[in-house]
Amino acid sequence: MTTSREIHLAARPHGWPTAETFRLVPVEVPDPGPGQVVIHNQFMSVDPYMRGRMNDVPSYAPPYKIGEVMYGGAVGEVVESNDPGLPVGRTVLHNAGWREYAVIDAAWATPIDPAAVPTVSAYLGALGMPGLTAYVGLLDMAAFQPGDTVFVSGAAGAVGSMVGQIAKARGAARVIGSAGSAAKVSHLHQLGFDAAFNYKDGPVMAQLAQAAPDGISVYFDNVGTDHLEAALNSLVPFGRVALCGAISGYNATEPPAAPRNLGMAVGKRLTLRGFIVSDHFDRRDAFLAETGEWIRTGQVQVNETIVDGLEKAPEAFLGMLAGANTGKMLVRVED
Ligand SMILES: NC(=O)c1ccc[n+]([C@@H]2O[C@H](COP(=O)([O-])OP(=O)(O)OC[C@H]3O[C@@H](n4cnc5c(N)ncnc54)[C@H](OP(=O)(O)O)[C@@H]3O)[C@@H](O)[C@H]2O)c1
Fold first, then answer.
1. What angle do CA 289, 290, 292 make, to 5 degrees?
2. Which residue CA neighbors atom 32 of ligand 1 most closely?
3. Distance from the alpha carbon of residue 158 to the mean position of ligand 1, in angstroms
4. Protein residue closest via CA to atom 47 of ligand 1
5. C-alpha–C-alpha distance, residues 137 and 248, integer Å
6. pLDDT at 1
7. pTM
């Protein structure tokens, strides 16, 4: 029998998770049942939404259970198969991350083509859920048009870096990003952003107003609070906002102090639209075709921060929440 290791939720965090939130557990890998496959994971994703699933509160997805293995996006190779449609050796994308080996129904694994990408991990980032989130949020939710001036917060992260690059590739007049360090600001310039600022350098409202003297027509919100307040101030009449996430509050124990100027949405006739990417998987083919081509031609860069070893997954997750990543934060489970 094969031995595997997996990470369980040990306790529900109040505020920031800690090392005690997680437990690394050795397990025996069970034999696959009829129609099942055993997958040896190569990469797993750590994502902000996982923080929400640690809370036992009603949400669009059920919470993780204490004492059980966590889950999330992963890419791995089929090493045992009871499904003729998914033979040994195929590389697949699936949702049984946070473990070295996964035994799942073949129907829950999506075959991917390793030859089509520089690294299979791209299917967890630029060509995966975060990339699709950027694509749908910008093009469908914020109804992006060529000539728009786009502001994106969390701009150096998995979703944000794709929002900025897709906006440029689709003909934005100007793309502005905010991020949490000088190194990330330089990275945004290198990705082709027209302007970028470090939100820790001073009030977001003043920095955004300086970067966008004529205002913004689209805001892609990954952060919430002071960033949303600043964007409401800078949006031009009939501006559009994609409400994608509000990471500044995910570990907060008090309600946010901002935005205090939501009333501006009335006078400016703004559209603010929240969305969840899983409602938009019908856009995956269009997204893969268009973004895949931009990546092949070099118009869009794939950026990742990779942490090695399943046992480091909690560290990678906490690091991502604190801004340790540039591009998509991933864990290399096995070469
Ligand atoms: N609606 C959906 O379906 C959907 C799907 C995927 C993701 N999302 C959301 O999209 C956002 C980005 O997700 P991602 O996967 O791309 O993560 P990410 O941006 O790769 O990583 C999270 C980043 O958030 C930034 N951050 C943390 N605390 C912050 C704060 N207080 N203020 C400003 N920035 C802060 C950090 O960068 P800095 O160094 O710049 O602070 C960190 O690197 C999140 O809000 C997430 O929940 C939504």
1. 65
2. 248
3. 8
4. 245
5. 19
6. 78
7. 0.98
